[in-house]
Structure formats: structure tokens, C-alpha cells
Amino acid sequence: MKNKVMKCYKLIAGRLAVYSFLLLAMSFMAFLLTSALWLFEGIFDFNQDILRSILQTITYILFIIGGGGLFLDLVILRNIFIKQVDVSWRNVKDKSVAVGMTAYNDEDIITGPVKDFLAHPQVKDVIVIDNNCTDLTAERAQSAGAKVVVEPKQGFGFASMRALSAAYETGADILVLVEGDATFDRRDLNKYFSYLTNVDMVIGTRTTRELIDRDTQIDWLMNPGNQIVAKLLQIRFWGTRFTDVGCTYRVIWRDAYEKIRSKLSVGGMHFNMDMTVEALKSNLKIVEIPITFHKRGGLSKGVGTRKIRAAAVALKMMGVILKA
Ligand SMILES: Nc1nc2c(ncn2[C@@H]2O[C@H](COP(=O)(O)OP(=O)(O)O)[C@@H](O)[C@H]2O)c(=O)[nH]1
Ligand SMILES: [Mg+2]
């Protein structure tokens, strides 16, 4: 009986919260519309009373159902069913590290990040994933000291999955996923390792203003945009704080990667979200930490600062959250 109740709870946990939150957001929009009607009074000549009372009723109903669902899931059910766990510790010092680095026609810039990450004393290998590059990326990566592995399936997600599996195949204890576009910094690795002592995976957040350079792709829209989608993820998997959804730079223990490896499947730009969701569904402990972020070298082939592309990726990411 107890098991059956637990199974039922697992089925609705987080999903109830996230869908209730959407109802609450709709109630807020209905409220705004109701308020806006006052503004138009006198401009448009029609009887607003009926429209206003319909909108008000919709606002109340959505508010009560949405707010109630959110409260039930996040405050009541969670406290009854979720078992709290103690903090665990694991030694990171002396553990071997392999870095999987994505690259797609990044010949102008790839040498820098390869040399940078190889300079960390624990990093044994940097593996650059050549995603069908038609320029000198592979040759330059190799001369800088990296191993090069070709991923024939085109796409950021395919390149990232190959980066993780190639790092795993070196036998390293700790796997690092990073882009080879010089936006990320080896000097942040020790910050990641500080938290990897307690958790299974550490993800970076590029939304801390004090830590990002001038003119990076995390601009006036990308920064809040990332934070907003991250909050939807946070509501779905309540308990873990998220402020960024597009940060590729992440570090995971070998045994934790084994738990999610077969579940990773997204080949497109929304891979980062999918990986995080799969890790959360597998009950991995995740911490997100503020990291530094630099302006991209070379041309962006992904989102960069392109707003329409960013919106399309954000929608796909929200789809991943709603289907999780
Ligand atoms: N967009 C894109 N990036 C790829 C692909 N294959 C590998 N990558 C690499 O994935 C990373 C993300 O691309 P990037 O242009 O930096 O996107 P941005 O970070 O959104 O500006 C870079 O390291 C690319 O070189 C691909 O097919 N498409
Ligand atoms: Mg990039």
C-alpha cells in the first residue's frame, strides 16, 4: 500500500507544480487583461461589463487551481514524501580528469582552449570533437596537444554526447564537458571541483554579472531569458536552484555519467537542458555554481546573440521540462 502511494506521488511530483504554475501565469495574464480594459474605456464604444466579469471569473478560477496545485505539490506532498539525505563527501584531489570539447569549424580559436585546459595539473586528456569541420580545426587541436575524435552526426548535442563518451573512454574519474570557443576558462575548474566533493554533477551559471566580460553573448535578453526558463526547471525539480539553462561547461563523476549515459539522446542545441533533466530524473545530486564567461572567439554557429534562434531553443527546452 505504502509503495503504491509512493508510486502515485512520484507520478505527479513536480508535474503538478509545473502545470499549476502555468495556470497561475495564465491567471496573471487574465488579470492584466482585466486591468487593461479600464484603460480602453471611453476609447472603444462597447459594454465592457460582461467581458470584465468573464475575465475576472477566469482570473479567480485559474488563480485558485494554479495556486492550490502549487501549494499542494511544493509545500504539502513534498514534505510528506521526500526523504531528506545528509551531505556526503568525496575526495577530488588526485583524481584523473578528461575534458571533452565540442568544436565546429573553430580553427581560429581552438588552440587557446585546448592549451588552457591541458595546463590544469589533474587534466590528463583533452579530446576535441570534430563535428565534420571543413577547416583546420582538427589539425590545430592536435598540434595544441588534444586528441581528436570525429562525430559524423551533425549537431551540438551529438558533439556533446560524443565529448562525454570520449572522455569516459579514457578511463578518467572525472569528466568535463566544455565548448572549444574560448568562452569558458580552465581557472574555473577548481571551483567546480570544490563542489564535486559533495555532489554528482556541477553545472556552471553564466548569469552572474560580476563574473562575465563585456560584450559576451549573455546580454540584456539572454541573461534574464536563461534565468526565466531556469525557474521553470526549478519548479519541476523543486529543491535544486537553477539560474541558467544553456551553460555547456559542466563536470560529472564517472559513476554518475554511467547512470545517465544511455538516456541522453538530444542532438540539437537544447542538449544541455536534456542532460540536466535526465540527471535530475536519475536522482543525481546537482549544484549550479557561478562561473566566469568570456566573449566568444570566432563565429558563433549556435545561438550566440541571435534572438529568434534563442527563442526557438528556449521553446524546445521548455518542451523538455513539460514532458519530463
Ligand atoms: N551550433 C553548432 N555547434 C556545434 C556543432 N557541432 C559542434 N558544435 C560546437 O558546439 C559549441 C556551441 O556552438 P556555439 O557556436 O559556440 O554556440 P553558442 O555558444 O550558442 O554561441 C561550439 O563549441 C561549436 O563549435 C553544430 O553542428 N552546430
Ligand atoms: Mg559557445
Describe the structure.
The chain has 324 residues and is an alpha/beta fold. It has 2 domains: 2-81, no CATH class; 97-323, Spore Coat Polysaccharide Biosynthesis Protein SpsA, Chain A (Alpha-Beta Complex). Helices cover 48% and strands 12% of the residues. It has helices spanning 2-12, 15-40, 49-81, 111-118, 137-143, 156-169, 189-196, 222-236, 254-260, 271-281, 307-323; strands at residues 97-103, 123-130, 147-150, 174-179, 201-205, 250-253, 286-290. A 7-stranded mixed β-sheet has the order 3-2-1-4-6-5-7, sandwiched between helices. α2 runs antiparallel to α3 (49-81), α2 (15-40) packs across α8 and α8 runs parallel beside α11. The chain binds guanosine-5'-diphosphate and magnesium ion. Magnesium ion binds next to loops.
Provide a short characterization of the protein structure.
The protein folds into 2 domains: 2-81, no CATH class; 97-323, Spore Coat Polysaccharide Biosynthesis Protein SpsA, Chain A (Alpha-Beta Complex), CATH 3.90.550.10. Strands 3-2-1-4-6-5-7 form a 7-stranded mixed beta sheet, with helices on both faces. Helix content is 48%, strand content 12%.
Descriptive labels:
324 residues, alpha/beta, Spore Coat Polysaccharide Biosynthesis Protein SpsA, Chain A, 2 domains, 7-stranded mixed sheet, 7 strands, 12% strand, binds guanosine-5'-diphosphate, binds magnesium ion
